[in-house]
Amino acid sequence: MSPTVDTAAPAGDAILRRQRIRESAARTYARSFPIVPVRANGMTVEGADGRRYLDCLSGAGTLVLGHNHPVVLEAIRRTLDGGAPLHLLDIATAEKDDFTTALFEALPPAFAARARVHFCGPAGTDAVEAALKLMQTATGRSGALAFTGAYHGMTAGALAVTGSVAVKAPLPGGGEVTRLPYPYPYRCPFGVGGERGAELSAAYTERLLDDPAGGVTAPAAMILEAVQGEGGVVPAPDDWLRTMRRITADRGIPLIVDEVQTGVGRTGAMWAVEHSGIEPDAMVLSKAIGGSLPLAAVVYREDYDGWRPGAHTGTFRGNTLAMAAGAATLRYVAAQGLVERSRTVGARMAARLAGLQGHLPVIGDVRGRGLMLGVELVDPAGTPDSCGALPADPALAVRVREACLQRGLIVELGGRHGAVLRLLPPLTITDEQADAVLDQLADAVEAAARAQP
Ligand SMILES: Cc1ncc(COP(=O)(O)O)c(C=O)c1O
């Protein structure tokens, strides 16, 4: 039955009502942000009600150039005007050839020099599936090493290596997933915090893998995020990443780094692996590489290319517009120094957030890298754990998100308990916009904390 249209209500309200009636109960962002964007430009989104918002969600980190950047629009228009076929499975096109060139130019040179790319179905999760499958094929093994707090997507293999127990699934091929502790100084899995927690994580990993009675058969791969995003914006220390690289290399375990959210300058390096200088065996890419259109790929060392034709196929692997928009985005980010900009503006924003922590006791922790920032909200009246971390306050986080929206700021939550405010503004954010974001955020946190039930 089609819902009746309420002609008296503003258009946005009617759309929201129809969405509630017609779309699935699994709606997510639509619940957090009951708005109907009608126009968007850069960091600004305009709702059907005429209200304007500063967008710090950026399509979950996708829009590194913000909405409708002229360079992206120009690439799309040029492609459309040129009459290129828009959908071509994985058949060669000039746009795909150019995107591949732009991607290989942007990748760490030593990695790119001996890399192969496989275009996947257009979502990060499919590229995660491809990476796991590739390494299963290459090693003849089935299991995987994955980390607490990890998020890798919503298809079976990606869910298997994701941390959240609410959505777990088994690994295809019957492989076991061994869960390892990801370093998280504020809520340290070892209860010690700081650098020591990361050292213990590395020592535990190494000893577990070498223990003949440790219960872990040789895995097909280790998969990790250099900065966990959905897990609550938790950057891994560079030393820890280097140790993971050594541990995996010494034992012939391919290392997959999931750069779906961290790629294309987000963390203040073109790729998050560049902070530590490690060279993974495979990188999983999506979100920003499509320049705001759907695109996903796995890039890997050519010696792992033991796939048969059709080993990881899919209809939508040749999105011409995404290739054009993505190539333009990769080149623009590099040419305009936006990676450096992400680093400097991100550091300035992080410093101001850390300053807020001084007089807002509900801010338990501020962390992040580049323009991937997280603010963990806590209950100051709660009992601290052995590292001094206070209990997470997800209810407060929801109130802060609402208060942000009322003030014209789009900020989503993440983290183990859904209590981390996640800032993912475009790399094109101006100094004035960064100040406005922080002013509004501070005001929202203060107001929501005052309104504590
Ligand atoms: C690190 C990481 N990997 C994989 C994914 C899954 O990507 P998608 O939602 O495009 O399937 C995400 C999505 O947020 C992610 O953050």
TrEMBL record:
Q: What is this protein called?
A: Diaminobutyrate--2-oxoglutarate transaminase
Protein source organism: Kitasatospora arboriphila
Protein's pathway: Amine and polyamine biosynthesis; ectoine biosynthesis; L-ectoine from L-aspartate 4-semialdehyde: step 1/3
Is Transferase included in the keywords of this UniProt record? yes
Cofactor requirement: pyridoxal 5'-phosphate
Q: Name one GO molecular function term.
A: transaminase activity
Q: Which Pfam families match?
A: Aminotran_3
Q: Which family does it belong to?
A: Belongs to the class-III pyridoxal-phosphate-dependent aminotransferase family.
Which Enzyme Commission numbers does its entry carry? 2.6.1.76
* Source species, domain of life: Bacteria
| Alphabetical keyword list | Aminotransferase, Pyridoxal phosphate, Transferase
